[in-house]
UniProtKB/TrEMBL annotation:
Pfam families attached to this UniProt entry: tRNA_m1G_MT
Known partners and oligomeric status: Homodimer.
Region Disordered, residue ranges: 253-274
UniProt protein name: tRNA (guanine-N(1)-)-methyltransferase
Organism: Deinococcus arcticus
Main location: cytoplasm
Sample GO molecular function, one term: tRNA (guanine(37)-N1)-methyltransferase activity
GO biological process: tRNA N1-guanine methylation
Length: 274
């Protein structure tokens, strides 16, 4: 008798956050969907307090900058000891304004890893030599925050939700904004009419093909109106090109976006006279 085999469950994706304020990230790791994912061993979030590696009586992890200036700098030897306490990581990521902007494509790439470690800075950031300890730097935008914990929470949610089993509907994230390259189409639920605004009739008619076509057109319309820059990074179809032209886009814009020509209009067959 041939023994039956069962597929072993996938290993959880481990997130290790090295921070001076682990309590700021704790709610994101324990509540809502991520908390349920952790309970089901789909993700593993480890919060590492940098002060545990200070090696001094006052748990001091920072010092004044060489050359003078305002603020304090987190010591590189503290960061090194904290990272050495972890299992080997596929990526060690430093939140930094010098890093490239975090994108959905990066989230999808990171979701395929096994262990991600993040250095969350405070004050004037880490000693510049900490850059030798990391595999990449990331930024979540051109603005200044007081620390890397909020950025870490953004990346945690964006990456963890892509792991199999974390979301209830395994296809739901595929239709989100940026996953398809476009902004998401508008969503509606009850009541069917509110303050003179009715749910579009096509969504209530039960014609799935018509709904899909409407949603694609709405996604194109929203992207054209609000984030036309995204269209240059989207795989557009000839039908998309026709829809964009109907929405007011010009031929020059289609060419700049690398869009294919719209379908040629169908010719009517002329009836032969007898």
């Amino acid at each position: 008798m041939t023994p039956t085999t069962t597929d072993a469950p996938p290993e959880p994706l481990r997130f290790s956050f090295l921070t001076l304020f682990p309590e700021l990230l704790l709610p994101f790791a324990q509540e809502a969907i991520l908390g349920k994912a952790a309970a089901r061993n789909l993700i593993d979030v480890q919060l590492v307090n940098l002060r545990d590696f200070a090696q001094n009586k006052h748990l001091k992890v920072d010092d004044t900058p060489y050359g003078g200036g305002a603020g304090m700098v987190i010591r590189v030897d503290v960061a090194e000891r904290a990272l050495a306490s972890l299992p080997p990581a596929d990526e060690v990521i430093l939140f930094s304004p010098a890093g490239p902007p975090f994108t959905q494509a990066m989230a999808e790439e990171l979701a395929g890893k096994r262990h991600l470690a993040f250095l969350c800075g405070r004050y004037e950031g880490f000693d510049a030599r900490a850059e030798t300890l990391v595999t990449r730097e990331l930024s979540i935008g051109d603005f200044v925050m007081m620390g890397g914990e909020a950025a870490a929470a953004c990346v945690l949610e964006a990456v963890a939700r892509l792991r199999p089993g974390v979301l209830g509907d395994p296809q739901s994230h595929q239709m989100d904004s940026f996953s398809s390259g476009l902004l998401d189409y508008p969503e509606y639920t009850r009541p069917p009419e509110w303050r003179g605004h009715a749910v579009p009739e096509v969504l209530r008619g039960g014609n799935h093909a018509a709904v899909a076509a409407w949603r694609r057109e709405q996604a194109l319309a929203r992207t054209l109106a609000r984030r036309p820059d995204l269209l240059a990074r989207t795989s557009l179809t000839p039908q998309d090109s026709a829809a964009l032209l109907a929405l007011g886009a010009g031929d020059e814009q289609l060419a700049a976006w690398g869009a294919p020509p719209p379908p040629a209009p169908k010719r009517r067959r002329s009836r032969s006279k007898r």
